[in-house]
Amino acid sequence: MKQLICVLGMFMAFAVNAQSNNELTKHYEAYYAQMKKQGDVQGVINALTHLNVLKPDQGRTDTLAYLYANGRNYLQALNTIGIEKNASDSDLAVEVKAISLKAMNQLPRAIEQYEELNKRAPNPYLAYELADLKIQTNDVTGATTHITYGLANAKDDMKRAFYESQQPYETSLKAAFTYLKGLAELRKDQKNIDGALTFINQALNMDPNFNMARISRDALENRKKQAAAAAKN
Questions:
Q1: C-alpha torsion angle, residues 79, 81, 82, 84 (rounded to 10)
Q2: How far apart are CA 109 and CA 98, in angstroms?
Q3: Are the CB atoms for 153 and 174 separated by under 8 Å?
Q4: Could you count the other beta carbons within 10 Å of the beta carbon of residue 191?
Q5: With contact defined as beta carbons under 8 Å apart, do 215 and 185 qualify?
Q6: pTM of the predicted model, to two decimals?
Q7: What's the pLDDT at 16?
Q8: Has residue 17 got a pLDDT over 70?
Q9: Cβ atoms < 10 Å from Cβ of 105
Q10: How far apart are CA 202 and CA 114, in angstroms?
């Protein structure tokens, strides 16, 4: 008899708990919908976090990580979604990992994620990211492969954003790839300043307002002058 009472008590407690969780889930689903309607990003994050505690869901986890990354909270994004390379990840999850790892200067890990995205759906924008990252990590051969692909497939109306100046701007993606070609030449051989300048000047001919290319050109020409002055002495 005592055993029956204990079993019934446990069943009732489980039922009450399940009902409570269902009510909370409905509450936070309504709260989530309202926060979306109001455009309250932090409210959406709070709602998704509560919903994942109550009823874990990978799609919600991916969305939560994306919201963190979109708000430049890259560590929170990676803590939410992880840093491992998983073939089963959604495209959104891989993109969040790639962007966040790049922002946190974890370049080899970021390359892994960009490679996964590029394997699924190659395009010139991904090729640019991979070429840029591979130049930074001294993989000139890999970078050159992506630059060649990018120059062959970039359309005239494709743009790439740059943020090194106080005012962000866009430049032609073809000009951006040509600029990277110059950087790759220099990474191959630091003494090949003229070779690098050839492509950087080509990029500036395509877009005279390409500020990053202009900065690099000025720095390289200054380096040439210094080298020439040192040689005279």
A1: -160
A2: 8
A3: no
A4: 9
A5: no
A6: 0.86
A7: 43
A8: no
A9: 9
A10: 27
Residue with tokens 């394997």: 119
Q: In whole angstroms, what is the distance from residue 64 CA to residue 76 CA?
A: 9
**CB-CB contact of 85 with 114 (8 Å):** no
Cα(215)–Cα(227) distance, integer angstroms: 18
Q: DSSP for 93-115?
A: HHHHHHHHHHHTT-HHHHHHHHH
Picking from 25, 100, 93, 33, the residue whose alpha carbon sits closest to that of residue 63 is 93
Nearest to 208 by CA among 180, 187, 179, 183: 179
User: Structure tokens of 71?
Assistant: 């708000």
For the stretch 103-138, pLDDT in tens is 999 999 999 999 999 999 999 999 999 999 999 999
- Residue 182 and residue 196 in contact, taking contact as beta carbons nearer than 8 Å: yes
pLDDT of residue 3: 54
3-state SS class at 39: coil
Domain boundaries, the chain: 40-106, 152-233
Check if the beta carbon of residue 51 is closer than 8 Å to that of residue 60: yes
Beta strands in the chain (DSSP E): 159-162, 169-172
Judge residue 196's burial from the number of C-beta atoms within 10 Å of its C-beta, 0-12 exposed, 13-18 middle, 19 or more buried: buried
Whole-Å CA distances, 169 to 65, 132, 149, 219: 27, 18, 24, 21
